[in-house]
Amino acid sequence: MVKTALKALLAVTICVTCSVVVLAADSVSVFVNDQPISAEAFIQDDSTYVPLRAVSEALGAKVEWDGSTRSVYIETSEETVVPNIIEQVSSSVVAVVGNYVGAGAASYSEYYSFGTGVIIKSGGVILTNAHVVRDMENLTVIFKNGESYSGIVQYRDDVSDIAVVKIDKLGLTPIAIGSYDDLRVGETVIAIGTPLSLTMRNTATKGIVSGKDVSVPGEHFAFLQSDAATNQGNSGGPLINLKGELVGINSMGVQNADGVSWAIPSDTVQYVLKQFETNGKVNYPDLGVTFEQSWEANIGLPTTKGLSVKSGANGGLAQGDVVTQINGILVHSFTELHEALKDTYTAGDISVTRIRGDAEEVVQVTPSLKN
């Protein structure tokens, strides 16, 4: 808990925690964590002044004024911040439900499936997992207040396990997407979703970031690991930080293991969404050869060994070569290879550092695009 005394301070200059939009000479709109607040603000000497109480309470703090000492006391703790963040974000979280494809039911029955989604655009655009909607028909999106809307799958990418659903509804509240790079291990995170039953819509659980850039066997990209409890039905829901920003999409847990949940990091989410908007699908660059990773990488041990070319040939790559860098980024595993391509490839050739015999050389390789 943090308690701060500010002598006779009635307004503060806001530089980081909220954004300010000047609408007219005498009119200022203030947003805290992308949420508008009702407060009279003014600009003076190129600084924006906002009532202290309005901003502090919007950030989840408790504010008290001691008139005898003319002091303002601001208290912040997870006990005050977490409920406010959950309330703020819940309007952006939905349940996604439908029949299994081929179940032959016109309405929901024992043959239905469900998961979670989160609004990313006010015009009815919702993010979820690809596996939530893969075998789903008669898709319906249900809000916390029980309102429901028919939905269609606009985009789906099974490799990243990300899909976009569209409903015919305007004026929704999109979630803000946070920086994965700035997220730290040990930071508090909150999962919101629909675990186990549709009656448990918008259930919230709290935990910490347990690990970043975690390689999961059989998966393409790295994952964010937390110990926030998730269950069947949480898939597709947001993992948020204490700013109310999405830092991951809850994707999977480990059966019979407590405190282990994996989420698709926000940087992967943004990469996939950009590809959807640009190409209508996700194009994955393929170097045209088959790689083999070391035994250390196979069992998750640290290693300095690169990736061996097991078969095939493409440009400067041939069987027996060992690839150590992709566009200047060191790679020691399949996951690191895919992450390097995600972070650096836009178009054209790929710079590959390879070892052939005793010689190390940088070669240019032309990839093919697969989806």
TrEMBL record:
| Gene Ontology MF terms in the entry | serine-type endopeptidase activity
Give me any GO biological process, just one: proteolysis
**Span of the signal peptide:** 1-24
What range(s) does the Copper amine oxidase-like N-terminal domain occupy? 32-81
Q: Which UniProt keywords apply?
A: Signal
State the Pfam families in the record. Answer: Cu_amine_oxidN1, Trypsin_2
Q: Tell me the protein's name.
A: Trypsin-like peptidase domain-containing protein
